[in-house]
Amino acid sequence: MAKAKKAEATVEEKLRALYDLQLIDSRVDEIRNVRGELPLEVQDLEDDVLGLKTRIDKLKTDVETINFEITAKKNLIDESKALIKKYTEQQKNVRNSREFNSITKELEFQELEIQLAEKNIKEFKVQIEQKKVVISETKERLSERDTHLKHKKSELNEILAETEKEEKALLGKSEKYQKQIEERLVKAYARIRKNVKNGLAVVPIERGASGGSFFTIPPQVQVEIAARKKIITDEHSGRILVDKVLAEEQQAKMKKMLAKL
User: Fold this and answer.
1) Which of 17, 68, 77, 249 has the most CB atoms around it within 10 Å of its CB?
2) What is the pTM of this model?
């Protein structure tokens, strides 16, 4: 004997299912709002810390390079002093004025080399001191950013620990509820949710207007909504509308379900 065809859900059942889905997704939104910008803040701080560490490493490399240059200049001074000593000895044994003048020029050149090298060393030492000041300032800033990062990470981890399990369970519920609703309605719901403020695609009538709106719903339309015979949308926002009684019933039901998560 053939199986009886499953009866199609009534409009009221569809409205209840859609509003249940909305309540679940709204709770997910709340959880994500609690996290807010924290993940982005943590990422920015991590980038800052990495950038400051890279800068310090570069400055230290610069100091090492300058110290290498200082060593090279000191070696040049030692070489020049050795040459001066050598030329001074040679000058004592010159045979004519031409040789004397030639050695004198070499001596003067080596003296100039020493003076220039000493000048370079002084300039290099000033550069090192300047870079050390920048390194010190950068380390202070790094310490501050690192402390701030640890605080924000701790804050984020604490929120994740509190909400991750619930969010995962809610997303599973959301997926389950979507499968129970016909595809065209789920697509319409997702489209509306994407286009409206706060992701509210299904809202109840509140004080004669659709939830979150100041636009009054005509009395006749309110009667039709309460009848639950067809799916009605707000002409201003496009939101799917449900009556207050249905909303309160589903809120009570979902409150019990969410409490068990």
Assistant:
1) 17
2) 0.59
